[in-house]
Amino acid sequence: MKSRKLSSKTLIAVQVVVVIAFGAAYSLGSRESRQSFDEVFLQETFYPEVKIERELPLRVKPFYNDPTVVTDEELAAVLKQVRPKFPRKHMKPNHVEHALRTWSIQSTFEDPSIVSGVEMRDFLIDHARFLASWGDEADPLLVDQPAGISIRWGTEIGGSVHHDHWLASLTEAGIHRDEHVFAPAQRDMTVNDVIQQSLRDFHLDEPEVEWSAMAFGLWIPPVKQWKTSEGRTISFDQIVQRLIRGDKRFGVCVGTHRVYSVMLLIRLDDEYDILSDSARAEGYAYLEKVRDLISVCQFEDGHWPANWMEGKTALTHPEEIPEYKNVIATGHHLEWLAIAPKELHPPHEQIVKAAKWIIRNTTSHSEEEILQKYTFYSHVGNALALWRNTHAAPFWKEWQKTHPYVPEQKADNAPLVAPKPTL
């Protein structure tokens, strides 16, 4: 039998058909299969991206407006203490982040020495503004990545102290997803790029997941799981289980941030169904245990101790605890209770006692003393505002209408005399 040789035209036609078929298969294939092909054959790095359907983050609203917990006058007095009166030189990112989540980007102040919400935002998202404050005395806060921006965090000078705290704070402050973020080398990035970088870099075994949980929960629902750059699937179920794992003494701020994050995710699950029934039940049971513990460990003056997780033992065998740690415990518990349903509350009179103690404590210190522990006291301002079903910025804006700022005045040949204090 004679062998048949294919003509060059036939060979070209076959090749065209194969290319067309391959192209069709590629275009019709799943996103994952196309990415796998690009990685193997084109040696392209895969950067997973989560589709986010909103331009502004979600906000979990408080349930209550209770003047028995805090009156207008008491709230104003506390907020006055926690205004962001930061020096512009060497502004601490951790202070700015805490102030932003309490005051929001919309905050404005008549006193020019107070840093506005927009100024705080710009300090965090623009390397040039950070450089103006720190010069070459600190490494950049914003770190260029191949497909995004990460945040320098840790104990080094000029850094964000906690992982994803930058993102969580700006998120709670109401930043827009398309807001430009200007890193040292990349000038075309947005907040969305920071979110995506954080999502793909996330690890469940990180020491701190509290702020990652908050940021992801306020941005990506109804998405409930995603893949990291390592190909690992992460879900909100896993994050809840990670938050409630281990002894309650573990975690940032004497374990209270974990409590707030779990409560936040359960509230988001109410609307967006981001948790399985079993994970929600585990998280809810955890909060019930926290409720029971703080119900039996409150001191007579109203504060909850830093060792609240010991329950009655904290009362019967009290420890020598620095005051600021009791401020942390009391303020942070009031904060999560403001977004918690009543069935997760200790007796109401205990909430009132805790609020009165924290109000007395906050207003008894000078502004300089508050500034030294600003991060802890900022939570007090946020918690008490939530208990009046408001936030610091809108409340303060209304308060300033009837209590305007009065600058200090210096008469000729007279020493500087401080005016009568006003709120």
Automatic annotation (TrEMBL):
InterPro entries: Terpenoid_cyclase/PrenylTrfase. This is Uncharacterized protein. It comes from Gimesia benthica.
